[in-house]
Amino acid sequence: MSRWRQTEFVCRDVVEVVNDYLEDVMSTEDRASFEQHLHACPWCATYLAQLHQSSSLVRRVTEAALPADVEAGIRALFRSRRAP
Description:
Blueprint: H1 11-22, H2 28-40, H3 42-60, H4 68-82
């Protein structure tokens, strides 16, 4: 069941429900209305494209280990700032 139940989206609505769209949890009717707005609104279409690009970049990020000397230096800095 849709939370939005509307026939026309405005930009504010797009921002509020974009995650529902990306997670494919919108009703068929809301999805069609959402996509209709995207086709008519270059700003929201750009916003969605930027979200897709950001998501793609985040998936490619991997955790890298710091070199031991850099980690030791950071820890020492934090300890020195904490000490009274």
